Amino acid sequence: MQTTRPDLTRAERVAQALAAATDQTHPAGPAAELQDIFDLGGSLPTDAHGTIDTRVTVLVLPAEQVRRLLPSGLELAPQPVVPSGWHPVYVLSSHDNFSAWFGDMDYEEMMIAVPYVQISEPYGRYPGPYIYMPRLYLNAAVPRELGVHLYGWEKQAATITSTTAGAETKYVVTAEGATAPTVTGTFREIAGLGPQPPRAYANFTIVRQLFEQPTISQALHVAFPDAFTRFAGPFFATTVLYQVDQPGTTVQAIEAELVVGESLTPPGIPPGTYRTPGLDTAQLGSFRLQCKQFVTLPGGCRSVNFPRPPAERRLKVAVLGGGPAACTAALYLARQRDRYEVSLYTTGFRLGGKCQSWRNPAKAWRIEEHGLHAFLGFYHNAFTAVQDAYLGAFPDDGLGQALYGQAFHAEPYNGVMVKRDDVWSYCATPTLSTSAKSPGTDDLQSGHALLLAMEGALARAVDHLAAIGHEHPLLGRTLTDARQELERAAANLRSSAGAATKRQAPTSADLLDGIAADVLIALRDTIAAIVRLDEHISTYAWFLWTGVDTLLTIVIGLLRHPVRNLSELDGWDFREWLRANGLAERGDERWSVVDQVYETLFAHQPAPAGRPPCAPIDGEVHAASLACGVATRWFLLESTGALGTPAYRFRYSCAQTIMTPLYLALEKLGAKVNFFHTVTGLELTGSGEERRICGVRLQRQAEVCAGPDAYAPLIREPLPNNPPELPDWPMDPDYAQLVDGEWFREHRFDFFDAWQADANPHARPALLRAGADFDLVVLGVPLGALPLIDSPLTSPVHADPDPAWRRMIDGIAVTQTMSFQLWLNVPSSSLLAEPRGLLTAFAQPEPSYGDFTPLITYEDWPDPKPQYVAYFTGASYSGKPPLPPQCGPDYPQRMQAAWSGKVHDWLSANYAAFYDGQGTPRSFDRFLDLLAVEGEVRTPAQRLEWQHLIADVQPSNLYVLSQPGATALRLGQAESGVGGLILCGDWTRTDMNCGCVEAATSSGMLAARAISNEPADVWRTGF
Ligand SMILES: Cc1cc2nc3c(=O)[nH]c(=O)nc-3n(C[C@H](O)[C@H](O)[C@H](O)COP(=O)(O)OP(=O)(O)OC[C@H]3O[C@@H](n4cnc5c(N)ncnc54)[C@H](O)[C@@H]3O)c2cc1C
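ok -> structure tokens follow
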């Protein structure tokens, strides 16, 4: 074929251009150029159509073995088919026939393929999954040359013989240069099983998942035969589609034996004999497939779209849990209606979990929340998931987009409380700099996100200095030089970000090169000296300085000890690391800008040793112990990664804004939501690579009259001012929809109280069985409730516990949380000197506050309505709080009663420090008199009790903590160690690794993606 020496420099350039293509997935122009360079013949390149007759053998090998089949730049992606620690590899022994632009071709090919592979790009948005083919042996030159020089495939010449004698076909492949067979495949037909349409095999739906991804190849393999060991990208994507939906397709279960010889390259499949049963008995069993196929031209990976042919049956997915994580996973699977039949099972009668809220019909339909909730400006995945829920719920006429457009308020008033010389002051966060790029939203590819975040931190420090200058003109003038120096340093970082994007695989040292830590240290310490000398500096200027000090210390710490990913710092406590890097905070001083990260993530010391486990809430709780990487990332994202504004409040209640559209979307998309179902056990079978989930035991808490999935959960009464499309969630179940509803009403049975679960005479066991009721399970039950589930994975008393699960459940701390909401008859402006929207770092145990006054509009108060609603939230008892039946059946009620007293004491001690406005009464009783109530006049204490006070001790609602060392214990969504069991929840490993809706929704997206390859785009922090 090739007559003259090809121009490899030109080939390399064309391959790079083809790999970088974004607009057009498979451009013909560059392909034609490659065709010309390598003299590949034929007319202009186009898609190629043909047929394949192939025997498929799936091997399940240890993951570390399979990694040896991948070139650098690629890694194994999460997959739903075999337990984590193992990975499928398949071998196709095929006869291919193509009639295409390059002429007619008829050849034998043995292909080794690794499905579920992704580009190792920590800054990319989980690119992949793809099929990588480490080796293809062919017995014909034309398809071999084309494959190598046009598609970058690892094709090699081989002698291939295929002989059939009776029911047995032997396929012998001897690679060029080998003296003994490289692979010998012996395939035996199974008596009585001839070729049949794919729907004849239930297992075909499982195994076909392995083929339904685009292939990925090294672009530079077109010019360099040693690309496998030489380059980490760039990559081509190509669609190789087996058109199994076309008439004439047949599948035939066969038994297979592969003998792998020493000459198979690259290493990764150890030499030896592999025997596999047929597809009739095994999910990944062997089979012969005859069908049409087509192959596109290669193109860039960024815009690749794989057109999956319709499946012969839908895979059944049981999603367990009803919080944001489980609902997000269910949403993205349910959107693929042709592929997945989604059934969600959750405790009780509301979705939302820790994001639950409800309306109290006896108290003006007021909104009562599980705790204060808001979205931060960097919640890319959470906003995407909520938007997709609106679009799924209201697909027509732009209504979904319109409702989503109104769903969030940008919060203009963000700040912290600062305690200086024992006096509390409110300090507003200065306006965000717009100079920093948002680390997640730029579209540059290489490893620079950490750099951009650090550049953002420096820019933010400049903001603080500018604000100090404004606040304190004398100091401001002295700090002008410092600002210039910081601006220079930020520009410096920005240019190394530019340089980094040009490098292939930048190391952390590359990234952090070009800016001297010493300069920043000198600057930080000079500013500290100036501030410390000024005895009369205002608290606000002091606060601004603590912000500069913290931001600079983070940048200095990362310059002195470069990391690739902040998770490397997760063994440290955040404050300890900052202090070790020279934070100016001394002794008992506490920078509120640091505390706010602890408080937002409810990070608290474990209860002191010897504390009686069932004792009521501690008054004295201390913020401490927060994994440094988690906290630094949070801090950098909060400071520099915001979309528009640092924080957003919900337009309506939390659940009405985010859970109602999720529920309506699931309903619209045909998912079955089974309320009143608590998971009580997981049944596993097999071991090693055959360990699978085979059953899910449930407690059906109540029988729904119209059928298990027919409960209508939302409030039916139209509430004034509320959007009719978005009903809210009720406080009590609709008893009329339940068999024995009257019993539940009379006994005021609490479906969310785990201490009462065994006291429900109407509960019945239910069992979901693999095959009949599910093919795959997504476990979205929260960490705190996992120990209540009987299984080797979750039960603390199981005879044969799974070590990784045990370490995770025992090792990650959780905490109870306590919250209250106050409705007041005066506007906030009479109680507060200046507006306060969202803040934290106030007095324990209720440091976090939000002004949720706009929600009054959606409640149904008689005139005169309350004028102000204040929410307070905090953590109390962290570590391992009691689980039922510990502490007796009335433990939640006792804690709730104790909480009323605590709120009274806390408010009495702190209201005057918080409310610094002209109209704040001097006496606490007078303050309580401002509380809104309905009905007859009450005592001040009763007025307080009439408010919404909630001490949440339920296992399901325990907040997941990120104490130092905890990140390493988290399991990824596809790391259950059990085939068919995928995980989601804010306790699984994501880029956030902390308890927040961004982590929960990210995990739900990643769980759906591990199963279905969608959603294709999941935002990553990149550092
Ligand atoms: C007081 C408080 C305030 C918070 N504020 C914020 C905030 O402002 N911003 C933010 O981003 N995050 C906040 N969070 C964190 C956020 O609420 C959680 O990260 C998020 O709800 C976790 O979602 P999830 O789906 O993983 O779990 P969950 O929300 O806990 O949902 C779990 C679901 O599983 C169900 N379930 C439990 N056990 C079983 C079982 N055995 N069988 C079947 N179903 C079961 C539950 O009923 C629930 O539906 C706050 C948390 C708390 C506690």
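Residues 320-326, 345-348, 353-355, 371-374, 678-679, 780-782, 785, 789, 817, 819, 873, 956-957, 959, 985-986, 995-998, 1000 surround flavin-adenine dinucleotide (CB under 6 Å).
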